[in-house]
Amino acid sequence: MKIPQAIIDSIKNIRGFDLETFIQAHEQGNLPISIRLNPFKLIEKWNVETSDTSFSEYGKYVNNLPNFNIDPLFHAGTYTVQEANSMSLEYVLRNTVDLSKDLRILDLCASPSGKNTHIASLITPESIFVSNEVISTRSDILADNMTKLGTMNSNDPKDFGKLAGFFDVVLIDPPNSSSGLFRKNPDAVKDWSLENVALFAQKQKQIIADAWACLKDSGILIYTTSSYSFTENEEVMDWVCEKYGATNALATKILDEESLRFYPSEKGEGFFISALKKNNPEKETYVRTGRPIKNNSRRTQREVFRPWIKDIDNYNWYDVKDEFFLINSEHEYLVNVLQSYLHIRKAGVKMGKIAGKDLIPDHQLALSLYLSENINRVELTEEEAMKYLRREDFTLDQAQKGWSLMTFENFGLGWAKILPNRINNYYPKEFRVAGKS
């Protein structure tokens, strides 16, 4: 791979840069493969060789990971493929934020979901976490990947400015030149230019400016890119400090430096992360009322949900176009606030629709952590699981009739309805795994 000399010239004097190592890393063909295990769905039996990554408790390098598209454990949400150096987000969060507190966190540019599912796995159940994708066409990918995580938790950045002083933490991973990912995408080299870097830097500053008001006083802005460029990284952070009076949250806590910078190696790709503390207070100016969440006095609905949801009396729900969503009771008022200002693609866990006295369960409920232990489950072999995920015909001997959760290694994959002479497969068509058994 031929690295543009302009890139080398622009970063050769930055700390930690070694030209020989940099060139050698881009000439090597072997890329590290890393995943992050879902702490809510830990795998007990797995024939995969792993070793620990540096920054995340559940981060692993893998040597013999099968194609994840044909691994039922991937579709069950037991792990996420995530670049190892980007897992430094956990290190930064743990050292700049008290994760034992109930927080309000915004991931502003979240798709496809590596870092936002990472955050969701670290915070308390009572915290509220908003994952936003600026590019609306990518919001479905984000929502689907958050569903696999199993927990509860597309707008323009300027929309969040209306929520003055709302969030404790804002993560911004804006569009960038992506020079740190050249090994994964060699064709991107030809699109790189100093002019494009300058344009990205302008956009990055605008995104921060649009969202800055929504961060609380003493709140933390975490900024990341997959770019090597000083212009897109340190210069943007210097601009925020100068314009808004922010101060660095890393240098005074854990580092001699004000950011973490990674160059490509056998351990990961190029990555930059920094954290700033807001020092000028924004008073909460958003309206505290919103359109009401209707439902909670409806005993008949609660009794429909009771067989499906464990501890249903501890939760609330709301409905949109006859589809019911389970939410944390503590979040009802906050969901009201957010709905007053934002387009909400997904909030809570979609339980499904009510037909008469029965629930037609949604796929989100199958992968959630809130499903009752009393729901009928059918444990599938690997061959059966792949037929289910491909929506191919298969038979089950002596299976109980009615709705059943299809599982693999005791992890939910989705729903099927067992009938006397056939199985109705309710695995979503849009998720169907391609190929034949």
Describe it for me?
- The structure is a single chain.
- The chain is an alpha+beta fold.
- Helix content is 25%, strand content 22%.
- It is built from 13 helices and 19 strands.
- The protein has helices spanning 5-11, 19-27, 72-75, 88-96, 114-120, 139-149, 157-160, 194-211, 234-244, 299-305, 332-341, 363-367, 382-389; strands spanning 34-37, 50-52, 59-62, 79-81, 104-107, 128-131, 167-172, 215-225, 247-248, 259-262, 271-277, 315-320, 323-328, 349-355, 358-361, 377-379, 402-408, 411-418, 423-425.
- The strands form 4 sheets. Strands 5, 6, 7, 8, 9, 10 and 11 form a 7-stranded mixed β-sheet that branches. It has a 4-stranded antiparallel β-sheet with strand order 2-3-1-4, covered by helices on one side. Strands 12-13-14-15 form a 4-stranded antiparallel β-sheet.
- The longest helix is centred in the middle third of the chain and has 18 residues, at 194-211.
- The radius of gyration is 23 Å and the shape is globular.
